[in-house]
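seq as requested:
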Amino acid sequence: MTYRDLVKMYDGLKEKFGVDTYKHVSELLKEAKTVHKKDWSKNKTPDGDHEQSWRAFKGKNLEKLIIHIIKEEVESLGLKIIEGNTLERTNSANLSKELSIVKRNLLVDYGEFGHHLPDVDIIIYHPSDLKVIAAISSKVTLRERIAQTGYWKIKLSADEATKHIKVFFVTPDEDGTLTIKTPTKKGRAIVEVDTDGSYVMSETKVEESNKVKMFDSFISDLTKLIEKINAKK
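struct tokens:
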């Protein structure tokens, strides 16, 4: 099971569900897990743990799949999109000049303890000035990283150089944390107060707000954001 297999499976679902395919990501992951386990069983080590192997695969490839889904539309807005670990895992000296500047524009200042990248999965930036427009975290459930996402939003907002960066969370929300607005679960409260919003990839109907929306609203919201930025130039 590889990322290419996952993309083929997603693109196959598009023939059936069209623009609503994003709602079936959880279904896709369940099917992919079955295939992944068969492949893993053929090559497993005696002390291997499939759940651990699957979690690593799922975490790494969900963000890639999201990029695959939105890349064309993001680029149609004149923006670029990359994986967050492209900057994290690469020594600055080995980055292109463009990505080196993007990395610098995303760093969080810890004073005497140096500058560090926030833990985000996807970065959207403008190629003309290399400013980061949005930083996105993506997990299957909110409990895996939502508090951390809120923390990074607070840190980025505290610095004049990074306060404009929007921090979003994209999730299939398999534990239903975002489904109901009130009574509010802790994960949704963090989204509503400490992030710029979350986009849900689910069949389950979500009680939407200004901060919690279905995934198909992402591109239209990004378009509005770019229009506001361009209007200020």
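Residues 3-232 form a domain with the Rossmann fold fold (CATH 3.40.50).
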